[in-house]
């Protein structure tokens, strides 16, 4: 079994989510975690996870979606969603983004720190975003003791040194489809121990692509795994086993929830 640890399925209709998950299941991707980026998308992700056994969710505010300072009300809204549904497995997607035009950095820092606090409060792992902000992201994670809950650096595109910094923090690196097109990332992935890697697609609707069949979906986790197997000179089965074991370690007790639903526990109404 493969796990896609990071997608954004909330913009899809319920019917489309069902189709996406069916295609994923057809190639062995049986568990998918859909991240929130705002209060509304977090709520939608939680609602979807209640409808589909193999879909789980994260709650969080993405740094690019910080339109106003993170408040105690925001904290309690996210906390409430997480505590009311056992299928909320992670605080995601949170982090820092320093690209041109990004929200005020002071607001980003505050929101990131508060959401790490939330993760520690809930004892949930963190899935974090970092663009042009790696050293600052790592610093905040250290200062806020994020290693107490661990988690994942999503959509990793760094080098071997950056991967080592991630794992030194007690986090895993998550590889996605950029692995298929970036030679430098391929070189790094060949050297990163399988014991430190999880898989994702960051799937979300992609209407800018002319053909619907080319949209990234959770089913593409298998493609990433196949390439990773080639780069590391191991079997796809070994990548499957290792990355699933790794996400199980990330989720800790949350993995019991995953397993119970995959074993056929009905979705909550």
Poorly predicted regions are: 265-269
The assigned structural class equals alpha/beta
Distance between the termini: 26 Å
How would you spell out the order of helices and strands? Answer: EHEHEHEHEHEHEHEHHH
Radius of gyration: 17 Å
How many runs of DSSP E, i.e. beta strands? 8
How is this fold's topology laid out?
Layout: E1 2-7, H1 14-26, E2 29-34, H2 39-49, E3 55-59, H3 72-84, E4 88-97, H4 105-122, E5 126-131, H5 134-143, E6 151-153, H6 160-168, E7 171-175, H7 183-191, E8 197-199, H8 221-232, H9 236-251, H10 254-262
Parallel strand pairs: 1-2, 2-3, 3-4, 4-5, 5-6, 6-7, 7-8
Helix pairs in contact: 2-3, 3-4, 8-9
List keywords for this structure.
single chain; alpha/beta; 10 helices
């Amino acid at each position: 079994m493969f796990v896609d640890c990071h997608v954004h399925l909330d913009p899809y209709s319920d019917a489309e989510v069902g189709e996406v998950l069916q295609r994923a299941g057809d190639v062995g991707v049986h568990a998918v975690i859909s991240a929130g980026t705002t209060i509304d998308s977090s709520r939608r992700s939680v609602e979807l996870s209640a409808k589909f056994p193999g879909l789980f969710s994260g709650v969080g505010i993405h740094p690019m979606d910080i339109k106003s300072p993170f408040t105690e009300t925001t904290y309690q809204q996210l906390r409430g969603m997480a505590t009311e549904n056992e299928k909320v497995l992670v605080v995601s997607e949170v982090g820092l983004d320093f690209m041109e035009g990004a929200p005020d950095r002071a607001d980003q820092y505050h929101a990131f720190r508060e959401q790490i606090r939330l993760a520690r409060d809930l004892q949930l792992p963190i899935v974090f975003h970092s663009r042009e902000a790696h050293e600052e992201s790592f610093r905040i994670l250290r200062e806020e003791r994020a290693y107490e809950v661990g988690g994942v650096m999503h959509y990793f595109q760094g080098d071997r040194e950056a991967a080592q910094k991630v794992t030194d923090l007690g986090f895993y690196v998550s590889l996605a489809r950029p692995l298929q097109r970036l030679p430098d990332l391929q070189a790094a992935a060949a050297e990163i121990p399988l014991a430190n890697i999880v898989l994702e697609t960051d799937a979300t609707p992609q209407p800018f692509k002319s053909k619907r069949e080319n949209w990234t979906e959770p089913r593409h986790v298998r493609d990433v795994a196949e390439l990773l197997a080639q780069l590391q000179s191991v079997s796809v089965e070994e990548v499957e086993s290792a990355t699933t074991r790794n996400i199980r370690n990330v989720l800790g007790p949350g993995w019991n929830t995953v397993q119970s639903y995959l074993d056929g526990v009905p979705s909550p109404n």
